[in-house]
Specification:
Blueprint (H helix, E strand, L loop, with lengths): L9 H18 L12 H8 L3 H13 L3 E3 L5 E3 L16 E6 L6 H12 L3 E3 H15 L10 H24 L4 E4 L3 H4 L2 H13 L3 E8 L2 H11 L5 H5 L1 H6 L12 E4 L7 H13 L6
Parallel strand pairs: 3-5, 3-6, 4-5, 6-7
Antiparallel strand pairs: 1-2
Length: 285
Amino acid sequence: MATNDDRLSRSEALHLQVARSIRTEIESGVRRDGETLPATRELAEQWGVSVFTITEAMKILAKDGLVESKSRSKRVVHAPDQNRRSEIRLRRPRVLFVGGYAGSGKTELGRILARGTGWPMLDKDTLTRPILEAALEMIGLSPNDRESETYLTKMRPREYESLMAATNENVACGNSAIVTAPFVKEFRDQAWVDRVTATFGALGADVSFVWVYCDPDSMHGYIRHRGAARDGAKLADWDKYLSSIDLEFRPLGPHFVVDNCTSGSPLQSQASDLLKSITGSQSAS
């Protein structure tokens, strides 16, 4: 789970980006076993790539046994173990804070971890976005605003307050939890790190911090493909956005790094290694 400093150019990584993204969708449960994948031309349009690129991506997925061809034009997801429930219970609850920049793959990693543990996944956007967007519109701002001073000073703190309250409630009930959000500001604040560690420690829980790293080319591909309106400003001036973030940033204190670059290991295998490192011999069942 160490960051891989080797870089692939966008042109070299296109089919790998597509294959990795679809693999992650399958492993996180977004695409289900037996689901028919869109036609090659439709996938090419979705990704803004050539039919050849999609064909090469499908070869990778077929070789790995994740996609099966039923005919010349029909491919289906092959993930028969998806419905098998996994559950890890620990003597002490564990809170995994999973952070990363937009498009890094933190939510996808969170879903894979949740599927592998049975722990609740608490995602900031899922918990707060509908109310946030309504509130932004009520004060005359775009529902997709994530850059204004109003959002950063008035709205963002409340989002994280809600996220932490939901986490607290789960831990107070004896549950472990996987908590996903950018956490950029929080992970660089030693006082915040110490505070949440102490807060959950007082509830009898252990805390781990995970940073999902993604190189610019892979990140751009993931963001462009997901097509979220809130990413419009980033994509409109990608170079400006890149200049505003620190790709070498890592959380303060002990933490784990998951490499979601196109050249990195599959998220599923990295998630498995992460869980082994975190749970160790603490499993109660």
